[in-house]
Amino acid sequence: MNKIKNFKCECGGDVLKLDDGYECTMCKLKVYNKFMNYKLSDEQIQKLFYSDMIECNNIKLNDGYIINAQIYSSS
Ligand SMILES: [Zn+2]
C-alpha cells in the first residue's frame, strides 16, 4: 500500500523510506510518518523536507480529542 515516491530533500539528497518515517541520505534529516495517532500524508512529509514545520488542523486522535498541531522535522 505504501508506494514510495521519489522525493528529494531540500539539500538535494535522496530521501529513503524507513519503517517509522523518512530520512535524507545526505543531511540525515528525518521525518516521522506519524504524529501521535495521526498518520502524515506523503504530501505533508514532502513539505517537511522543504520547511521545518507544518501546521495540521483538526487532527482527530483515537480518544476523540481534536487538536491543532505544529509538526516539526528533526535532524
Ligand atoms: Zn537533506
Supply database-style keywords.
mainly beta, 1 helix, three-stranded antiparallel β-sheet, two-stranded antiparallel sheet, binds zinc ion, about 80 residues
Q: Give the N-terminus to C-terminus distance in angstroms.
A: 27 Å
Oligomer: single chain
Beta content comes to: 35-45%
- Binned, the helix content reads under 10%
Give the mean pLDDT: 85
What is the helix/strand order? EEEEEHEE
The side-by-side strand order for the widest beta sheet comes to 1-2-3
Extended strand count: 7
What does this structure look like?
Helix content is 9%, strand content 39%. The longest helix has 7 residues, at 42-48. The protein is elongated and about 40 Å long. It has one domain (15-72). Strand 1 (15-17) and strand 2 form a beta hairpin. By secondary structure, it is mainly beta. It binds zinc ion (ZN). Zinc ion (ZN) binds next to loops.
How is the topology of this model organized?
Blueprint: E1 15-17, E2 21-24, E3 30-32, E4 34-35, E5 38-39, H1 42-48, E6 53-60, E7 66-72
Antiparallel strand pairs: 1-2, 2-3, 4-5, 6-7
The structure holds zinc ion.
Short description:
The chain is mainly beta and about 80 residues long.
